[in-house]
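We emphasize that the prediction below concerns an isolated chain of 134 residues; any contacts that depend on oligomerization or on bound cofactors are therefore not represented. The input was used exactly as deposited, without trimming of termini.
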Amino acid sequence: MTEEKYPVVFDEVIRIKLQKAIEKSEFKKIIINWLDELECNGPISGKLLDNHLWLYEMKNKHPPLRLYFYHQKSTNKIIIFECEMKTSEQKQQKTINKVKNRLTKFLNLYGCIPCFLNFLKHPEAVYRAAYFLK
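Result of the prediction step, given as a token string:
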């Protein structure tokens, strides 16, 4: 088994959202493929939405599912911030703004690299995608 190049991590809220989405059979394959693609290819798997925050989006048209993530370059980790159904352009823009705001606060709060790296090492703070898919 090869080690992933880009470990994918997310918090408890996103874990619950992904679990609910995976319960629907049509989403399970999409989400698992996304997580595998993120682990292998990293940020090039998604579309860059904001080059100042390094916010990326992965999307599926049918069903209209969106995944927003951040690439933490110093550790090469992919941090998932949101996963949701797109119902309208307004909702999508509202979600993007909400994620940008959260990411800005997150980066300001953990602006100190050692603090941020320490946060990512705590198993109770983040879940690895590989563990989630077992």
